[in-house]
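TASK: fixed-backbone design
INPUT:
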């Protein structure tokens, strides 16, 4: 299972990159809007920092404008994956980008039908937004189950990228289903690291070691 960070925050990316936890990055216009600075420069910096796919999203809504943006974004680095919204014009753009050898991530996917069509158009990734489905009273994880099953049935090469993740159990469930990638806000990755029993256990080890040191004042390990 690959873990991507769903952020445009350079500090978070550096923090988790230094732990070797970042297989890739996904960004979107809303995530960039949260950051201070020039969004184009931020995107370039992310592409430089990360040794893995970085999804950068177009904001055009016609195939023509999406393609113009896609070719410009692709110049930011070889690891750029162009993020395209799941609309009819988007599928046209995906087909052309596939023919040009440019990877795409079809975003704002809310149904298995949309995922099938994105895969047929040639998307490298589809991004179902599971948290937003849960918020809407639907079962987001069930959508992941359906898409993974359908893609397996037909050996589609498109990766299922679980997006709009809200808590660590989403990651466990996505892994059990066999989704290829989960993209996480930084705070959820932080929650995955910690466990209260780890902290309690470490504190007991360290306090026992203090007793050992008292009995062996010159001890170095
Ligand atoms: O990549 C975007 C997706 O993960 C959105 O998440 O939390 O805005 O629903 P959210």
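OUTPUT:
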């Amino acid at each position: 299972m690959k873990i991507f960070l769903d952020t445009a925050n350079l500090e978070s990316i550096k923090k988790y990159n230094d732990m070797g936890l970042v297989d890739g990055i996904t960004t979107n216009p809303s995530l960039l809007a949260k950051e201070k600075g020039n969004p184009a420069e931020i995107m370039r910096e992310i592409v430089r920092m990360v040794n893995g796919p970085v999804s950068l999203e177009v904001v055009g809504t016609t195939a023509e404008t999406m393609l113009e943006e896609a070719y410009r974004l692709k110049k930011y680095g070889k690891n750029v994956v162009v993020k395209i919204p799941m609309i009819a014009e988007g599928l046209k753009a995906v087909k052309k980008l596939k023919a040009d050898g440019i990877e795409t991530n079809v975003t704002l996917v809310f149904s298995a039908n949309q995922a099938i069509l994105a895969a047929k158009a040639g998307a490298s990734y589809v991004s179902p937004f599971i948290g937003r489905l849960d918020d809407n009273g639907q079962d987001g994880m069930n959508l992941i189950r359906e898409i993974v099953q359908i893609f397996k049935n037909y050996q589609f090469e498109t990766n299922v990228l679980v997006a709009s993740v809200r808590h660590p159990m989403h990651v466990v469930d996505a892994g059990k289903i066999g989704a290829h990638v989960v993209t996480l806000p930084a705070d959820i990755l932080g929650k995955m690291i910690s466990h209260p029993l780890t902290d309690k256990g470490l504190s007991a080890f360290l306090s026992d070691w203090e007793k050992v040191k008292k009995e062996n004042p010159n001890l170095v390990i």
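COMMENT: The radius of gyration is 21 Å.
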